[in-house]
Amino acid sequence: MAANEDQEMELEALRSIYEGDGCFRELSPVSFQYRIGENGDPKAFLIEVSWPETYPQTAPVISMDAFFNNTISSAIKRSILDKLMVEVEANLGTAMTYTLFEYAKDNKELFMENQPVNTVVS
C-alpha cells in the first residue's frame, strides 16, 4: 500500500478517535498537535507530529517548539523527544500518531517529574 493511502487511512482514524477532543488539533492533513494535560496545568505540554511524504515508512517529525511549551526547560523537551523517538523506532512502518499521543499521555508525570512548576502571575 502506498504511503499516501496509509496516511489517508490514519487521518480518517485520527479524526474519528479525537472528534470532540479539545486537546487535539489538525493543523493540516499531515500535521497534528496534541496537548498533554489540562488547560491551566503547569506541567501540560504540546506535541506536534508532522508526516513527511514517505511516512509511515519513515519517521514523523516531532516538535515541541510551540509557544505553549515556552516555560518547559530545553532539557525536559529534549528528554521527551528522545523518549518519543524510541517509540517511533519501535513503530516504524505502521500508523503511529495515535500511539505517540497516547504514550505521551500515559507517561506525562514521568516526562515532567523534573520540570519546575512556575506560577506565572499576569
UniProtKB/TrEMBL annotation:
Question: Where would I find the RWD domain in this sequence?
Answer: 9-111
InterPro entries reported for this sequence: RWD_dom, RWDD4, UBQ-conjugating_enzyme/RWD
Q: Which PROSITE patterns match?
A: RWD
Q: Which CDD domains match?
A: RWD-RWDD4 (cd23817)
| A Pfam family per the record | RWD
Among PANTHER family, the record links this protein to: RWD DOMAIN-CONTAINING PROTEIN 4 (PTHR21275:SF1)
Task: State the protein's name.
Answer: RWD domain-containing protein
Annotated organism of origin? Bambusicola thoracicus
